Amino acid sequence: MPSFSSADRIGLDYHILDASNNRISYLTSSSFANAPFTKVILSNNELNSSTTSIPDNAFNGDEKSIFELDLSSNHLTSLPLALTHLSNITMLDVTDNPIAYSTDFTYRAMKAMGDSMRDFRFGSQQLEEWPKTLNHFQQLQKLEVDGISSRLQVVPPEGFRGFETTLLELNIHHTSLIGVPIGISKLRNLQTLHFDDNPYVKNRGVLVQSFPIFGTSHKLRELTLNNDGLTKFPEVIKYLRGLQSLSLDENILDFVSDANLLGNITINSLTLRNCKLSRVPGALSDLQLPNYP
Fold first, then answer.
1. What class does CATH assign to 1-139?
2. pTM exceeds 0.70
3. InterPro entries, alphabetically (predicted)?
């Protein structure tokens, strides 16, 4: 890793460091001192969780300036304690690291980042347990999960506890989950849900009670259920009265229920690509799709 601690403070004019796709295996103490980066990208490197790879003082001198940190596609098996010093971090990406268990999302790191974290991204095919320490992120606005071990088929009902009223966007991709997590129903202000490439969900896994439907309050605006093993339009669609955009791409829709579309006349964008449809659903004529010149 190059040094930014020289006396001429060469890094003062730079705000983003992109050192992705290298062979960086360790950071030094005060790696970014005198270079007040707000965003550091270290994805696709060879960093691991040991203190010789990421020492506790790796971010000394930049504890308050780093807002976004991308450590995706490295060799982390747990969250390094150096993260506890990033007092203003708002985005952390640790996707595609061999982090397997809940305890690997270390209590100290998650708690220390809890007050500032707004955007958290994790997941890999090695992930066998849902992290319980997510509940420290009580200001979280975006959560992205990309990859889960086949051993983890159900997200615990309390999996989204702590940010039920703050989360606006949830993305869950490439898992072996057998259903839309029931805990999503508690996300009162969720606006965007991308639940794609979860082929074991199938029709039985898309339950009405798994979605945030609160009386006359309908916050969900965008929903994608692409490649989820569906063969029919989910019944829940007709209850999502605020929905504006719906995508069911890559599902083999043998049966299309007009009734499930008729209940929802707010949709203005609908995509059904690669669904093997044999007819155009008659209920499409009742959707309030925009008029284009």
1. alpha beta
2. yes
3. Leu-rich_rpt, LRR_dom_sf, LRR_domain-containing
